[in-house]
Structure formats: structure tokens, C-alpha cells
TrEMBL record:
Domain of life according to the entry: Bacteria
Compositionally skewed regions (Basic residues) per UniProt: 21-33
Start and end residues of each stretch annotated as Disordered: 1-33
Protein name, as recorded: Excisionase
Lineage of origin: Bacteria, Bacillati, Actinomycetota, Actinomycetes, Pseudonocardiales
Organism: Pseudonocardia aurantiaca
Length: 154
């Protein structure tokens, strides 16, 4: 720009920044309008969470698992797991998960505590005896099918 005295007028950088900040939000430069590229995708968050769990397992010799996984692998109810870590019978950690804070427990400690519980032992014995009964019944059905096939051939 050239002023009345034919001297170039220097643009004030703070003035242009001030003018841009007063612009309507839709007129602002794209870097101010949309920051969605900064938000990680759901898959990225899940992958980062899985990496954190793997790091926890590497730091300790025994794996730290979620309550749901411990419940599924050991066969202990979630309420029993909560009771055990609240009473200090097993160790637990509270970490950030994909849906908020998540409780982790040591799988080996859960297995040891479950082995010491008479109620869980009785349930396991019942389940084993049921499995044994099912196996015996399958064997008897197989024998009866063989006998029936032999009778049909005659």
C-alpha cells in the first residue's frame, strides 16, 4: 500500500490477526473451523488401549486382565471379584479404558483365590460330575445305536 506521502504503509501483523479473529466462524481459515483430524478414531483408541494392556502384562510377570475376562476364564462372578479386591484379597488397578475407567486384576491371583473358595470348588465339582454324566450318557447312546443298527440288519 502506498500512503498520501508515497511511503509504503507497513501492515500491522497483530491487526490482521485481530481482524481474522473477529470474522464470522464460517469465514475463518479452515484450521480454526474443523479440528476433527485431531480426534483419534475409535479403532485407534481401541488399538492404543490394547497396547496399554500388553504393556501392563510385560511390566508384570502375571497378566492383568479386565473383570469380564477374569470372570470368563476362571468362572467367578463379577461381584465375587469386586468383593475380593475391595477386601484386599487380590490386587487390582484402575486404568483408563475405551469407555472410561476400567478395573484390572491379576489373573493368577484370581485363580489362586478361586481355588481357596469352598463354594467355587463345590460348583466346579458339580460341573465336572455333570460333564462325566454327559460323557457316560453319550457312550450309552452310541452303544444303543450300534445295537439298533445290528438289529435292523437282521
Amino acid at each position: 500500500m502506498v500512503g498520501p506521502s508515497s511511503e509504503p504503509i507497513q501492515a500491522d501483523p497483530t491487526a490482521s490477526a485481530l481482524a481474522r479473529s473477529r470474522l464470522h466462524p464460517l469465514v475463518r481459515p479452515a484450521r480454526h473451523r474443523n479440528r476433527r483430524h485431531d480426534i483419534p478414531s475409535w479403532e485407534d483408541r481401541l488399538a492404543r488401549r490394547q497396547n496399554e494392556l500388553e504393556l501392563f502384562e510385560q511390566l508384570d510377570e502375571t497378566p492383568w486382565v479386565t473383570l469380564a475376562r477374569a470372570e470368563a476364564e476362571v468362572g467367578v462372578s463379577r461381584s465375587a471379584l469386586r468383593s475380593w479386591y475391595r477386601n484386599g484379597e487380590i490386587q487390582s488397578r484402575l486404568v483408563d479404558g475405551p469407555n472410561g475407567p476400567q478395573r484390572l486384576v491379576q489373573l493368577d491371583a484370581v485363580i489362586e483365590r478361586a481355588a481357596a473358595s469352598p463354594r467355587i470348588q463345590r460348583r466346579a465339582e458339580r460341573e465336572v460330575s455333570l460333564e462325566a454324566q454327559v460323557t457316560l450318557l453319550r457312550h450309552r447312546v452310541d452303544q444303543l445305536e450300534l445295537r439298533l443298527a445290528a438289529l435292523e440288519r437282521k
